[in-house]
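Would you mind writing out a protein's amino acid sequence and the numbers that encode its backbone to help me picture the idea?
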Amino acid sequence: MVEALVTAGVAVASAGVVYVMAAARVVKQYERGVVFRLGRLKSSVRGPGLTLIVPFVDRLRKVNLQIVTMPVPAQDGITRDNVTVRVDAVIYFKVVDAADAVVQVEDYRFAVSQMAQTSLRSIIGKSDLDDLLSNREKLNQGLELMIDSPAIGWGVQIDRVEIKDVSLPETMKRSMARQAEADRERRARVINADAELQASKKLAEAAGVMSEQPAALQLRLLQTVVAVAAEKNSTLVLPFPVELLRFLERAQQPLPPAEPGPAEAKTGQD
C-alpha cells in the first residue's frame, strides 16, 4: 500500500514537473507576450518575467518593444521640377500595442517597410530638387506623418524618419557645378565693381584736396618714388613736373635792360 502511494506520488510529481515545464514561458524585459487560447486573443498581455500558459491550448507569441532601425531601400523618382533622383532613408519605430501588432497586421515590419518606400516615392514626386538638398527637416516631418497615420492602427509608433542621401545624375551635378561657379563669378564682379566705385569716390575727394594745395601733389609724388625705390629689382621712371620746367625756362631768360630814371635823363641833357 505504501509503495503504491509512493509510486502514485512520484507519478503525480513527475506529471506536475512535466506540466510546469510545458506551461512555463519566460518573457524578457523588452518583450510582451500575447496569448491565444484556442485561437482567441486573451485580453491580458503578459508582462516580463515567468508566466504560465495552458499547454496544447494556449499559444504565446512574444513581441519586441525595442526601437527598430530599418533602412528604406533607395527609391528612384522624378521631382516636381522634372529631375531624376535616387533617395534612400532610414526609419525608427517601435511597437506600442503588442496585441494590435499581432492581430491587426500579418507582419508589421514588412508593412512598415512597404509603407515607407511608398511614402518616400510620394515625397520625391511632391518636392523640388532644392527642397531635397537643403530643406530635409521639413520633408522628414512630412514623411514621418505619412507613415505614422496608417501605422497607428497596427500598434506601431514612428519615432523618426531621416532622408540619408540624394543621388543625382552626373549631368545634373555638372550643371549645378557650373551654376555655382557662375554665381560665385557674379558675386566677385559685383564686389570688384563696388570696390572700384568706393575707390573712385575717394580719389575724387583726394583730387579736390590736392587741387587746393598744389604742393600736396609734389609730396605725393615723392612718396610714390620712395615706395617704388624700395623694390631694388625694378626700374624707376621719375616723371618731371611741367611746372618745374617752366620755372627753369623763366630763370634762364636774360633780364630786360633797366629804363633810365628821371635823374639820369637830366644829367645827360647837361
